[in-house]
Amino acid sequence: MTKTVLCYGDSLTWGYDAASIGRHDYRDRWPSALQAALGDEARIIAEGLNGRTTAFDDHLADCDRNGARILPTILQTHAPLDLVILLLGTNDMKPVVAGSAFAACQGIARLVRLIRNHAWPFEFDVPDILIVAPPKIRETANVAFAASFVGGIEESAMLATLYRDLADELGCGFFDGNSVAKTTPLDGIHLDAENTRALGRGMESTVRMMLGL
Q1: Is 0.90 topped by the overall pTM?
Q2: Backbone angles phi, psi at 105, to 5 degrees
Q3: Which of 111, 210, 84 is CA-nearest to residue 166?
Q4: For the domain that residue 191 is a member of, what is the CATH number?
């Protein structure tokens, strides 16, 4: 039976392209690259929203970007699920949101609890969870992004270690996005087409193992 995977994330999952100030082609987004790698053995659902946080309000946003508040609706929409991939935390680095890796880690833990305690319809099984550390923020000459994420370079560098420890503690899978992808210097946050494809391809073996493929 075909497995169903939900990719829950922010602009990295949506496919923001810093070069065009638009969106990557569909085939270049990491969920699409993962879908291509897995073929017909799995169905990949991309749920990416620009600016989404793990579990914090962004009062400057034009829509609800609190990942914890909208997640139950997303889970109910796409059930049943075999695996949920969580790729969030970069936007938590904004001082106006949370401004710390520890806060992002707490937010991820909140999302894991929401998934496991969700009132799954029709007695569907609880899906496995893969926590992905986003590629760390880097220096950029983009004044707006540098100001929005001040302090984020140091904080985001701690996410991989914190997420790995959290995954071990909660019995989740873990993948370090830094192992296959780097953010672009154009804004220090997002991925170019090559790196977002690499992120999806890089997850393949971990996802296959977790799905039993």
Answers
A1: yes
A2: -65, -40
A3: 111
A4: 3.40.50.1110
Asked if 199 contacts 191 with a C-beta cutoff of 8 angstroms, the reply is yes
Task: Convert the pLDDT of each residue in 3-47 to its tens digit.
Answer: 999 999 999 999 999 999 999 999 999 999 999 999 999 999 999
Q: Strand pairing of 128-133 and 83-87?
A: parallel
CA dihedral sign of residues 90, 44, 195, 62:
negative
Show the domain range for 206.
3-211
CA atoms of 60 and 41, how far apart (whole Å):
40
- Bridge partner residues of 132 (DSSP): 175
Q: Any idea of the CA torsion for 194, 46, 131, 19, to the nearest 10 degrees? A: 30
Provide the strand spans (E) within 51-209: 83-87, 128-133, 173-176
Residue type, position 42, single letter: A
Count of domains forming the chain = 1
Q: Among candidates 139, 143, 179, 136, which has minimal Cα distance to 159?
A: 136
Residues 6+ positions from 38 with CB-CB distance below 8 Å:
44, 204, 207, 208, 213
